[in-house]
Write a structure and sequence with these properties.
Layout: H1 3-11, H2 26-41, E1 44-52, E2 58-65, H3 72-89, E3 96-101, H4 112-117, E4 122-131, E5 134-144, E6 148-153, E7 163-167, E8 171-176, H5 180-194, E9 216-221
Parallel strand pairs: 2-3
Antiparallel strand pairs: 1-2, 3-9, 4-5, 4-8, 5-6, 6-7
């Protein structure tokens, strides 16, 4: 994938590019509904909310600023803001730990814009229904349209199509695969953003940039 192709994709408007296409279910959805407007009010956006059995019971909140950054200080701010809101709304009927983190380099892809910003990198995609004879896809993100993402397999299996367009409406889970190229590109984007070499676009958002480590803050909810 050439730089020209990347530029073309990044400047072509895609309908609903910044709306989450992968969302939570059950108690996770209830938590997301509570915290998402709160995050927006302080300049962040939700990536994922997940309740897990880690460390007894842990509510994992993954968030980022609109430019893709998320520092340790940002995690602390989000934790301090969300903790009293969750205490009042009380969506979880047991004691739990609140853990706030950045998406990390091998981040989940939950918005159309996530796929667009990481064109050329390898992703794993799961679908909710069988598509082209399977439900799991892995490959280089080649193109992004309003309807779906085109993936070029980097580990072709016999009988599988080497190039597949996966409709967004079928994607149940997706994330980047950690590679040397991804680490290098993420660090370069992060540096460019912090040094002001990536300008904000007309919507006030900049290109995705990931820190080399994911800051996180953990608070116990009683």
């Amino acid at each position: 994938m050439t730089d020209d192709a990347n530029t073309k994709q990044e400047t072509t408007p895609i309908e609903g590019a910044d709306e989450r296409i992968i969302t939570e279910t059950g108690i996770d959805a209830r938590v997301a509904g509570i915290i998402e407007p709160v995050l927006q009010s302080i300049g962040f956006r939700l990536v994922r909310a997940r309740l897990s059995g880690l460390n007894g019971l842990t509510l994992q909140i993954m968030a980022e600023r609109h430019d893709g950054t998320m520092t340790v200080e940002d995690c602390e701010l989000v934790s301090r803001t969300l903790s009293p809101v969750l205490d009042v709304e009380d969506p979880i009927d047991r004691n739990y730990h609140l853990e706030v983190s950045s998406p990390g380099i091998d981040r989940p892809l939950v918005r159309k814009s996530d796929f667009t910003k990481w064109i050329g990198h390898i992703a794993k995609i799961d679908t909710s229904a069988v598509h082209e004879g399977r439900k799991k896809f892995r490959g280089r993100i080649a193109e992004v349209s309003v309807e779906g993402v085109t993936v070029e397999s980097d580990q072709a299996s016999y009988g599988d199509k080497p190039v597949v367009e996966v409709p967004f409406e079928l994607i149940s889970d997706a994330r980047l695969v950690l590679t040397d190229d991804l680490i290098r590109d993420a660090l370069r984007r992060d540096k460019d953003l912090r040094e002001g070499r990536i300008p904000e676009d007309s919507t006030g958002q900049a290109d995705e940039a990931e820190a080399s480590t994911a800051g996180q803050e953990e608070i116990k909810q009683d």
